[in-house]
């Protein structure tokens, strides 16, 4: 893991340094080429060089390892040559660590242990998705790896949190593990379907990664719930939680709308061509339509949760206090 991270960091730095050097018109020293050749695997060198120095969501060149940009320039790409499988090690290790922690803590703390570990992982996953979607690090291999990491985590979280932990609950010992709520199951189903479509058709749709960035807010609902259980959702903490929850879930809704609305006309047109049998690239049209439909579902859930947040804050401002309002808690985002 450490060596892979160092190689990736060196690859990124050497790529941008090489691009900047090329703009000067001066030939790079031979030692740079030898160092780069010795340090980086061939697949990574080809992936970085294929884009001709530019980086962007969904790739830029025709080379192996970077997604090929569609004719409409929206950043969709094909990933026939990128490997499938290795990124699943990341969520698997997380699930193992979560299982060990849940098996070691007191039964009445098992739910909290599962949520706490998921918050850490999802917070990093959301930040990683934002990094891989925007800015100079929006490289196609990173995005395709994130699709696999996200899919693996959703599957394992559904299994562990929704089935395994509730199966081992023991009310006599104070363990109150419950299965996931219906809206959370629906959230997982949309995410799993979107990620699976990208892998099944070997087509990358940027929206599948962009929406993952909303998991940056994964820590807000558990923080609210724990503060409410401890009767600490008052005063400055209450105001801070209210502001963060409103801002976070408003941002989720805004990002969902920004992903869904601009793509609606072209996606519906592509689906019409697919149904009519006139689609030039059926796999692209099918994957694009699937991801867009899932984005609509995820956006609807984000709006639903934002409405719950607004209702909870309104109760608090109105004097009833969300610390004493059992129905005021918004559904967790994962």
Automatic annotation (TrEMBL):
<feature type="compositionally biased region" description="Gly residues">
    <location>
        <begin position="55"/>
        <end position="64"/>
    </location>
</feature>
<keyword id="KW-0472">Membrane</keyword>
<feature type="signal peptide">
    <location>
        <begin position="1"/>
        <end position="22"/>
    </location>
</feature>
<feature type="transmembrane region" description="Helical">
    <location>
        <begin position="233"/>
        <end position="261"/>
    </location>
</feature>
<feature type="region of interest" description="Disordered">
    <location>
        <begin position="55"/>
        <end position="77"/>
    </location>
</feature>
<feature type="transmembrane region" description="Helical">
    <location>
        <begin position="119"/>
        <end position="139"/>
    </location>
</feature>
<keyword id="KW-0812">Transmembrane</keyword>
<keyword id="KW-1133">Transmembrane helix</keyword>
<feature type="transmembrane region" description="Helical">
    <location>
        <begin position="189"/>
        <end position="213"/>
    </location>
</feature>
<protein>
    <recommendedName>
        <fullName>TLC domain-containing protein</fullName>
    </recommendedName>
</protein>
<keyword id="KW-0732">Signal</keyword>
